[in-house]
Amino acid sequence: MIRPVEEKIILGIDPGTTIMGYGVLRVAGVQPHMVAMGIIDLRKFSDHYLKLRHIHERVLSIIESYLPDELAIEAPFFGKNVQSMLKLGRAQGVAMAVALSRDIPITEYAPLKIKMAITGNGQASKEQVADMLQRLLHFPKEDMPTFMDATDGLAAAYCHFLQMGRPATEKAYRSWKDFAAKNPGKVKG
């Protein structure tokens, strides 16, 4: 059960080095409402350091515009090459540093957890996540953004909203392997 919150603003960010998505949710009581979603377009910058500066400026502007109480950010997933991961980690770090400079608490969510929270399927496509958010948050189809990175940012915020009312459990699991190690009697070998 989700505990009622008087009002809270959640900023969700989907980090990227080409397109960074964001979404803003306002939670009134137990009801979330989409306030905004969009992208930070980094394609015009060829220099990675200029991209980082632009991320800093835009995330700061978004924070100053919407005054979020919390930041939910998608954690980079492994599998890309090392240079891509390094650049993505820097982009994520800049966004996090801006939030921290404004004393905004940060929660990271794995992409699989976000997709699972929104659609019930950790392997859902960006389009499936966007479609489900459109239905859950009741915004018109014409408000659907061109870049799904925006809905991915909104998905991070919505995932955080779903987690807000759930107290932290004693047994937190980081992976299936971790679950199996902590629950040997529940797992068939």
SS summary, helix count: 6
CATH topology: Nucleotidyltransferase, domain 5
Question: From N to C, what is the helix and strand string?
Answer: EEEHEHEHHHH
Poorly predicted sequence stretches spanning 5 or more consecutive residues:
167-171
State the major sheet. Answer: 5 strands, mixed
Q: How would you state the average pLDDT, rounded? A: 88
- Which structural category fits the helices and strands? alpha/beta
Distance between the termini: 34 Å
Number of strands: 5
> So what's the overall shape?
globular
Rg, Å, rounded: 17 Å
**The CATH fourth-level homologous superfamily:** Ribonuclease H-like superfamily/Ribonuclease H
Give the helix proportion (percent range): 40-55%
Spatial strand order of the main sheet = 3-2-1-4-5
List the helices and strands and how they pair.
Elements: E1 5-14, E2 19-29, E3 31-41, H1 48-66, E4 70-74, H2 82-101, E5 106-109, H3 111-119, H4 126-137, H5 148-164, H6 176-182
Parallel strand pairs: 1-4, 4-5
Antiparallel strand pairs: 1-2, 2-3
Describe this structure in words.
With 189 residues, the protein is α/β, with parallel strands linked by helices. It has one domain (5-186): 2-Layer Sandwich (Nucleotidyltransferase, domain 5), CATH 3.30.420.10. It is 44% helix and 22% strand. The protein is built from six helices and five strands. It has helices at 48-66, 82-101, 111-119, 126-137, 148-164, 176-182, and strands at residues 5-14, 19-29, 31-41, 70-74, 106-109. The longest helix is centred in the middle third of the chain and has 20 residues, at 82-101. 32% of the residues are buried.
